[in-house]
Amino acid sequence: MSIRRGGKGFTLIELLIVIAIIGILAAVALPMYRAQTLKAKISEVTNSMGTIASAIDVYRQDTLAWPPACADALALQSNLGVHVPTYRGTLSTGGSPTVVTAIIQNISANNPQLDGSTITLTANTTGGGAVTWTWGGTLDTPYRPH
């Protein structure tokens, strides 16, 4: 029996090595993909919070007072003129200075531990009356804006 040398094609060991490399890459990439997907969904909420913060800034400049507390999206729209989607979280405002609070809902079926987490955006006034905003809340740090 003669062994054919220089044949075309791949050996079984070469194919197994390629499959092992693909498996290792998939094992690393999938968790990273899931984390980035969650961050993108949470950014929808934080973008809405930023819009609310801008409306509060305008309200404060016009009236020299903090806006009334808003318990839901309908109150935000009627008091501040801001329409925000509520499909990823429940948004509300209140306090003096104002705190914008979002309660995360339905972010991911794979990560239900994030449901019920909060993100807060707290207004801080400086001596000159300017307003700065600080992020906080119970949401895990990797998912929270900086």
Count of β-strands: 4
As for the number of domains, it is 1
Radius of gyration using CA atoms only: 25 Å
User: Do you know the CATH architecture?
Assistant: 2-Layer Sandwich
Q: Which fold name is given in CATH as the topology?
A: Glycoprotein, Type 4 Pilin
Low-pLDDT regions: none
User: Class, according to the CATH hierarchy?
Assistant: Alpha Beta
User: Mind describing the biggest β-sheet?
Assistant: 4 strands, antiparallel
Distance between the termini: 70 Å
How would you portray this structure in words?
- The protein has 2 helices and 4 strands; from the N terminus they run ααββββ.
- It is of the alpha+beta class and 146 residues long.
- The longest helix is centred in the first third of the chain and has 52 residues, at 12-63.
- The protein starts with 11 loop residues before the first helix and ends in a 9-residue tail after the last strand.
